Amino acid sequence: MSESIQDGKFVELTYKVSDRKSGHVLTRVEFPLGYVHGHNEILAPSVHEQLKGKSAGDVIEVPIDGNQIFGPRDDSLAFSDRIENVPEEYRKIGTSILMENDNGQTRSFLVTHMDDETLTVDGNNPLCGREVVFTLEILTVRDATDEETRTGAAIITGADIDPSLMRPV
Question: Rounded CA gap, 44 and 79, in Å?
């Protein structure tokens, strides 16, 4: 009998997030994501709730209203500027730009539109205002080690990590 997801179990899964209306895949995590259930909630609480009781090999779909998780869209967080006012390294759709306001608070903005004259950035979470579906494939369910429970995630020992693949967040 296979183990089921419950608090204290180590879980590995992959997932994709699709727009509910269009079916368009918005993001996909293909490299297994590992966490300790109940100790490191890495996805929306409603997703974690739907994972309880599932086993390795299960595929589930969880509909999510982006407004419930990220709040309603704030149009004041999207703005355009003339392209010549924007540094060259930011002139690509999908580029993330960390900006700071006068109070020292930071927010990540995403370049969402660009043409010959203007560039638009948006500080709203890309899931605001969208109904999406998380499709999750559960790969592994097992007892977490003591160290995994302490850290909430998988422990990788002796791994050769290419430093060029690491970047600040």
Answer: 28
Topology at the third CATH level for domain 74-122: Thrombin, subunit H (2.40.10)
Q: What is the pLDDT of residues 80-100, one digit of tens each?
A: 999 999 999 999 998 999 988
Q: What is the tally of helices (H) and strands (E) in the chain?
A: 3, 8
Contacts of 5 (CB under 8 A, 6+ apart): 11, 37, 51, 52, 53, 54, 55, 138, 141
| Residue 9: CB atoms within 10 Å | 21
* Token pair belonging to 29: 């995590």
Read off the pLDDT of residues 62-81 as tens digits, 9 standing for 90 and up.
Answer: 998 888 888 888 999 999 99
Options 3.40.50.720, 3.10.50.40, 3.40.50.360, 3.90.180.10; which CATH number does 9-69+128-153 get?
A: 3.10.50.40
What is the pTM for the complete model shown?
Answer: 0.67
